[in-house]
Amino acid sequence: MRQKRPTAGRGDGTGRMTGDVGKRVTVARALSKLGYCSRTQAEKLVLEGRVSISGRKTTDLSQWVDIDKDSIAVDGTPVAAEDKIYLMLNKPRGLVTTRHDPEGRPTVFDCLDDADAQHIAPVGRLDKASEGLLLFTNDTVLAQRLLDPETHLGKIYHVQISGEIGDDKLHAMVDGVEEGGEHLRAARAEHLRGGEKNSWIEVELQEGRNRQIRRMLDVLGFEVLRLVRVSIGDIALGALAKGATRPLTTDEVLYLRQRTGQK
Fold first, then answer.
1. Do the beta carbons of residue 154 and residue 111 sit within 8 Å?
2. Pairing label, strands 51-53, 24-26
3. Rg of the Cα trace of the chain?
């Protein structure tokens, strides 16, 4: 596992921003926030007695750490904050959103051949048959806030469906439908283009239920032929090639922080 020297809390325009990791957290959370490993992995390290805080070993998962003041080491090696990494991927159809798949299916990480890929995780998911914008970061605080429904950060999808769809069905998506014991609704649903055989619609969600759009349209009698996420808030997929990645700009990262209330 890699360690980096701490640097100032600024963006460099390459999808990396540094600093802003601090305050008091539990020791496992501290290792996660510093980008060293996941919280589950950190808890295992603590219980194995491999973690020390300011020179003293601890096996207490409830112990608090001030990241700005306390020194943390694993197996005697100091852990420093990693540069923050923020990427977008134009996810191709057919990839599962996980790091390792027990069935051996290709994953979104097959598109990330950079060494930094081992230190980042996807923000949310797109199912195997879906395409489009997927964010990756090692900024666990921002990732959690982006996934919080209270953030109200809209995600926009372009969806190709079988047949024609009328305004009544689009209004039904906004009003909400019942499926599997859940009330599923879109923040917005509009017709884009199409004819008798198939249509394209634009759907905005502000919540992230499993396969939400597909389930809603199935209730309304439509088969989803393609589903592409084109934006998250003001962060747009644009002309990024399928399977390609690019770092978020400093302005894009600041926008996401502002929208989620992160300083």
1. no
2. unpaired
3. 21
Three-state SS for 51? strand
**Banded pLDDT at 3 (limits 50, 70, 90):** very low
Find residue 14's DSSP bridge partners: none
CB 246 within 8 Å of CB 88:
yes
- Give the C-alpha distances (Å, rounded to integers) separating 131 from 7, 53, 157, 192, 229: 35, 44, 9, 18, 6
At residue 211, φ and ψ (nearest 5 deg) are 50, 40
Give the span between the Cα atoms of 260 and 245, in whole angstroms.
23
At which residue do the structure tokens 């600041």 appear? 254
**30 has pLDDT over 80:** yes
Q: Tell me which residue of 237, 252, 241 sits closest to 133, measured CA to CA.
A: 237
Tell me the catalytic residues: 127
Model pTM score: 0.74
**Between 69 and 133, the higher pLDDT residue:** 133
CB 70 within 8 A of CB 54: yes
Residue 32 has what pLDDT?
80
Q: Find out whether 113 and 147 touch, Cβ atoms under 8 Å.
A: no
Q: Which pLDDT does position 37 carry in this prediction? A: 79
- Please list the alpha-helical segments (H only) found in 193-249: 212-219
Are 196 and 123 a contacting pair, CB within 8 Å?
no
Burial 65-97 (b: 16+ CB within 10 A, else e): bebeeeebbbeeeebbbbbbbbbbbbbbeebbb
Tokens 């900024």: give the residue: 139
Structure confidence by residue, pLDDT tens digits, 183-193: 999 999 999 99
d(CA 153, CA 236): 13
Residue 16 has pLDDT above 90, yes or no: no
